[in-house]
Automatic annotation (TrEMBL):
InterPro entries from the UniProt entry: Rieske_2Fe-2S, Rieske_2Fe-2S_sf
SUPFAM superfamilies: ISP domain
Protein name in UniProt: 3-phenylpropionate/trans-cinnamate dioxygenase ferredoxin subunit
UniProt KW keywords: 2Fe-2S, Dioxygenase, Iron, Iron-sulfur, Metal-binding, Oxidoreductase
PROSITE patterns found in the cross-reference section: RIESKE
Length: 117
C-alpha cells in the first residue's frame, strides 16, 4: 500500500476508490466527482495528489490549467497552487483543499473524510 504522506494525516477516514492506478499517466491530471465534490487527481513522479478542482478565486476548474512541476496554474487568472499542500504561491493563507491518497491493489483511493485546510 502506498500513501501520499504530503498531505494532512489527521483527517477522518472515508476512502473512495477514484480510478485504476494505470488509468492516469505520469505527469497527467483528471477531473473527478467524488462524494459530490469536484476533485482534481494528479500524478507526479509516481505519486498521486488530490485536491479540490475549484480555484478559490472564481471557482475556475483547475483541471483545465497546466501542471508545471508541482504547481497547478489556474486557467482563468494564472494563480499557482502547490499540489502537495494546496497553497497559493502569492499568498500562502489562501489554499485549495487537498485530500489524502493511497494506492492499494492497483486502485487509487482518495480520503473524502475531510480536507486539509
Amino acid at each position: 500500500m502506498i500513501y501520499n504522506r504530503n498531505v494532512f494525516m489527521d483527517q477522518e477516514s472515508k476512502w473512495i476508490m477514484a480510478i485504476k492506478e494505470d488509468e492516469l499517466p505520469e505527469g497527467e491530471k483528471t477531473a473527478l466527482l467524488l462524494e459530490g465534490n469536484k476533485v482534481l487527481l494528479l500524478k507526479k513522479e509516481g505519486v498521486f495528489f488530490a485536491m479540490s478542482n475549484k480555484c478559490p478565486h472564481m471557482e475556475c476548474p483547475l483541471s483545465k490549467g497546466t501542471l508545471e512541476q508541482y504547481l497547478i496554474v489556474c486557467p482563468c487568472h494564472d494563480w499557482k497552487f502547490d499540489i502537495r499542500n494546496g497553497e497559493f504561491l502569492n499568498a500562502k493563507e489562501i489554499k485549495v483543499p487537498v485530500y489524502q491518497t493511497k494506492v492499494e491493489d492497483g486502485n487509487v483511493f482518495v480520503n473524502m473524510g475531510g480536507a486539509g485546510e
